[in-house]
Amino acid sequence: MSTLLSRSSANRVIPGFGLSLGFTIFYLALLVLIPLSAIFLKTFTMSWDAFVSAVTSPRVMASYRLSFGAALIGAAINVVFGGIVAWVLVRYQFPGKRIVDALVDLPFALPTAVAGITLTSLYSANGWIGKYLEQVGIKVAFTPLGVVIALTFIGLPFVVRTVQPVLEDAERELEEAAASLGASPWQTFSRVILPSVVPALLTGFALAFARATGEYGSVIFIAGNMPMVSEITPLFIITKLEQYDYTGATAIAVVMLLVSFLLLLAINLLQAWARKRAGK
Amino acid sequence: MSAVLDNHLKDKTAAARQISQTPRKATNTLEPGWVRYALIAVALVFLTLFLFVPLVAVFTEALKKGWDTYRESVLDPDALSAIRLTFIAAGIAVPLNLVFGVAAAWTIAKFEFPGKSLLLSLIDLPFSVSPVIAGLIYVLLFGSQGWFGPWLMDHDIKILFAVPGIVLATVFITFPFVARELIPLMQAQGSEEEEAALVLGASGWKTFFKVTLPNIKWGLLYGVILCNARAMGEFGAVSVVSGHIRGETNTMPLQVEILYNEYNFTAAFAIASLLALLALVTLAVKTFIEWRMHQAQKASVQDHTTEQ
Hints:
The structure holds two protein chains of two kinds. By secondary structure, chain A is an all-alpha fold. Chain A contains 14 helices and no strands. In chain A, helix 7 (112-123) packs across helix 9 (144-169) and helix 13 runs antiparallel to helix 14. The longest helix of chain A is centred in the first third of the chain and has 34 residues, at 58-91. Chain A starts with a helix and ends with a helix. Residues 1-11 of chain A have low confidence and may be disordered. Chain B is mainly α. Helices cover 79% and strands 0% of the residues of chain B. In chain B, helix 4 crosses helix 13 (252-261). Chain B is globular and about 65 Å long. Chain B starts with a helix and ends with a helix.
């Protein structure tokens, strides 16, 4: 009751509600909502059959498989290694740790085009990493494997940065109690630590996956962009635009937008679950 | 993305809590030594492959043919005009989103109103939209077949394939950065200090500039730094609306693409190395701000404990 009272009195004291809310909504509508609604309105000019055939042609289906498949694999790699990186950064001391910690955000800060050309040159047949992989018969650049590498790079910080604070918050006493009650290190890990970080791992996975499905800049250089083989969905939208097929491009964009809204919903539910688990 | 941006704040509250408790040694691990070293090794090998090697490769490739070629590539007129356009786009987009971020954070942190959580998710929306789609929406609005296309053509106004389109796409892509940073910060700070200033007779604007702004300056700078890095590095959205006219509508990332596709690798990596430097500076400033905020928090926690 007292918080309710202080809140309503705060409403009276603090000025600028009309101005700040008005400006926020105006700016949001002008730059985000109205432009985004253009996508949906444009698809309403299509007949249902035309829409369905535009978003289910074999070439688009192949691009969905690649975009979502590679995003899934990249996010899974990041759950495993990002989880280990987060653990190592929170629990252990080693020289250069602060620099390593700061550099984890590099994929956020490095422009995607730079990441794209660099990964391509590293993994091409005569690149620093590619030449060793070539010797064992693995081709990365200009194959779907290259797409996985680029999407792993892009998603790297998401898992690390969602798991890190949860591990920092974890009550070490519980682990000590488990150990003193005779649990083996593996039992302590799988019964005490893992359950507490599962929500964060899943959230990180979903965030990395969501980012990877829409990613363009870092992928197009390394993918090779062969139709049916290594063509991602965002690139297919660009191809349609270059052919002046605006409705076709928009139809595919609507499918991608719906997928990202669903992912956003899933992420929000995961975060609510994680908060509940943490008891906050 | 939003969750990740939120986290450093949670980080700090967690850190503050930890300081107020008895300090704990970070090395009291239960697992055997070899597990610890194996995990550190796995983490470092993974990060080396995915972060350090690419970072070194950018600069190595850029300087492959020596400093003179590097200088030439960077000082090329097309490169310079790309650098100029990148600064113009970021110089317009970042201040706009800064003003928006402050207004949105003020609305959400200081007031209660219906539809607040909807407003919050709508602000986050641009993060979940693919950059290519962000570009596409402006093509649908301002392209020759678009809603405003014919009208713009009649009045001889160019938005698409010109600087305004690039600025609009950049604003869209970097839309939530500052707001996302300030909202949790201002919510955590509450409004007691502002109320005190207002009761003592300060005007609304004076309260904002003298009370609120000093309190949020580090968070604000944090948001601006991240917003700027994304604005200068954005590729997908800008690529759709730019039209790729050399020396006119190419930003630095687009110039990198063009040079790379022409097999002019050294020049492409020379421009890329400038962007990589920007990324490193961004990370350094970001780490510094995190350290500052951590120090401030520590000081305030210590103040409280001595008061008690």
